[in-house]
Design goal:
This protein is an alpha+beta fold. It is built from six helices and 20 strands. The protein has helices at 39-54, 86-93, 96-99, 107-110, 179-182, 230-238; strands at residues 2-6, 10-15, 18-21, 61-62, 68-69, 78-80, 113-115, 120-121, 126-127, 136-138, 140-146, 162-170, 172-173, 189-197, 208-213, 216-222, 248-250, 258-259, 265-270, 274-280. Strands 1, 2, 3, 4, 5, 6, 7, 8, 11, 12, 14 and 17 form a twelve-stranded mixed beta sheet that branches. Strands 9-20-19-15-16 form a five-stranded mixed beta sheet, with no helix packed on it. A hairpin with a 2-residue loop joins strand 2 (10-15) and strand 3 (18-21). Bound molecules: manganese (II) ion. Manganese (II) ion binds next to loops.
Length: 290
Amino acid sequence: MKICRFNHDRIGVVQEDDVYDVTDLFERQLHWPAPLGDVVIGQLEKTLDVVREKLPGIKPLKLSSVRLESPVANPGKIIGAPVNYHAHIEEANGDSEINNGKTFTTLEAYGLFLKANSSLIGTADEVQSAFAGRRTDHEVELAVVIGTTARHVPVEAALDYVAGYTIGLDMSVRGGETPCYRKSPDTYSVLGPWLVTRDEIPDPDNLDLSLHVNGEVRQQANTHLLILNVRRVIAYASALYTLHPGDVIMTGTPAGVGPVLPGDTIKAYVEKIATFDIRVAPQFADQVEG
Ligand code: MN
């Protein structure tokens, strides 16, 4: 099933060109302190049967008439896996603006990084480059959304902890600061257009993915080229962090990263999920007055 968030926090099921509003089937009252993670994603698995049962009685909206927001509203963590495709390691080691004098070897030598959850937007929004005079690159990635609290998960069982998959853009300022800084400006994490529940993608390690800028292909690969595949990257992350429902793991970008400029249009695709277009805002964030 394809689950979206739209029009100011409505929860929807997407079927072809239609969206069915199923918001009222979810418990959304929060108590303080709120549990870590996303309460709707945490309910998804147990609510899907009710959603299926009620769907025929709901009058759908046209998908083209709604405004799609990030399918995860409150990720506790957005985890990034750097250098998880061999061809991207090669290009990073060959580009001093990416490597800043470092040599990348393995993902484990580098570890994971966290992106601020305030950087998250949906596909109807715009990416806004942070700094005039600094390079901002696109990185298209398969994004895993965790469904069940997970800690020390064995590789073989890792997919049982997944709610679903979505498309991630891990936008990145190039430079010498930490990834947590360079990858966390507002609008630098894009998720969408919806989450595809894990039952529809039994093998996340064989999905084509691509990214175009203004119609020109920049990135084209398949997740079978991941160095740490989806199971292994979940196990690796859960060995360090408790993963909560709604936590997002961006699994790493393939080769072909490169700069975007204000006014560009990015097209991102992951097989079995979707294709979406997102615009880069015409002005840099540091040039907006006020
Ligand atoms: Mn990345």
